[in-house]
Amino acid sequence: MKLNECSKLGKCILSLFLAVVLFLGTVMPVWAVNSSGDPKHCREVRFADPGWSDVTGKTAIASRILSGLGYRPVSIMVSLHVSYLSLKNGDVDVFLGGWLPAQKSIFEPLVKAGSIEKLGINLPDAMYSLGVMDYTYEKGLRHFKDIATFRKELNNKIYGLAPGGDGNEILGAMIRENRFNLRGFKLIASSEQAMLAAVDKLAKKREDIVFLAWAPHPMNRKHPIKYLSGGELPTGAFGIAEVYTVSRAGYSAECKNVAKFLSALKFTLPMEEELMGLIMDGMHPMKAAADWVRKNQDVWHVWLNDVTDFYGGSGLLAVENDLRS
């Protein structure tokens, strides 16, 4: 072969190579590039979940949609205090259970220090207080200051949740400091399931019981619960609540696309109570979430405004296609 022929052949091969590269650049599958603006390490989204049925349900819904967007959500079961510590240390990314004002003693110092950030309110009309049955309410137990007058009927007991929880801490301080004349009461600390079992047992016999209650929760459909007033003073903890989506510091700037989706999450009491009921009846949270997502497309479609999938394509189309697969 002559040198000029070899040179021409080399140019041909080079031209062919460049043509192939240009061709691949136009047809390369979307999974080969990430143009969503999120760095690759943002693909894994780590949720803190203290095991509360409302947070578990919301986390499952968010995870189901994120999976359709091409992200890899992970739910990490930790206590409330460890949830916030993990956010502060960057060991988790997101927590969907920032109840205020109940958690303000933990929440506000971390926000002020710049250790966590608020992405938005995911539930605006929650409730957290002590509750009683309607028949006890009609007897006159309607305010925190009325509890002491029902000391005998209540067997000097207030039913709380797991030790270390925010509600227990507040009630324990009330008893120690004799607020509302509560000295001598015993705070029964137990799991959510054990507390609700006690409520079921005593309500069935129409006996009086005062216990930590909140909405959203299926207990509000099962029992005629009345919430006590007065708990918002002097503690500022009980009463009407807002639930925040919280992230580790800098997350919204670092993982813009997924943070945009998480900031848009908005739930209602009926939505959460429906999902929580399914989970508490034994359905796996991800199965319950998948069913909810299929039935409530008008709700989550709004959450995906201006949100892409992880690869930069249409977020809405990606989730819809994933649901059909």
CATH topology of the largest domain: D-Maltodextrin-Binding Protein, domain 2
Give the ordered list of helices and strands: HEHEHEHEHEHEHEHEEHHHHHH
Number of helices: 14
What is the CA-atom radius of gyration, in angstroms?
26 Å
Structural class call reads alpha/beta
Q: What would you say the CATH architecture of the largest domain is?
A: 3-Layer(aba) Sandwich
DSSP strand content: 15-25%
Largest sheet: 7 strands, mixed
> Any idea how many domains?
2
Q: Give the low-pLDDT segments.
A: 16-33
Query: Averaging pLDDT over every residue, what do you get?
Result: 88
Mass-distribution shape? globular
Number of strands: 9
Helix content: 40-55%
Question: Which CATH top level class of the largest domain fits?
Answer: Alpha Beta
Distance between the termini: 56 Å
CATH superfamily of the largest domain: Periplasmic binding protein-like II
Characteristic key phrases:
single chain; 325 residues; alpha/beta; D-Maltodextrin-Binding Protein, domain 2; 2 domains; seven-stranded mixed beta sheet; two-stranded parallel ribbon; 45% helix; 19% strand
Descriptive overview:
The chain has 325 residues and is of the alpha/beta class. The protein has 14 helices and nine strands. The strands form two sheets. Strands 1, 2, 3, 4, 7, 8 and 9 form a seven-stranded mixed sheet that branches. A two-stranded parallel ribbon has the order 5-6. The longest helix has 25 residues. Helices cover 45% and strands 19% of the residues. The protein folds into two domains: 176 residues, 3-Layer(aba) Sandwich (D-Maltodextrin-Binding Protein, domain 2); 113 residues, 3-Layer(aba) Sandwich (D-Maltodextrin-Binding Protein, domain 2).
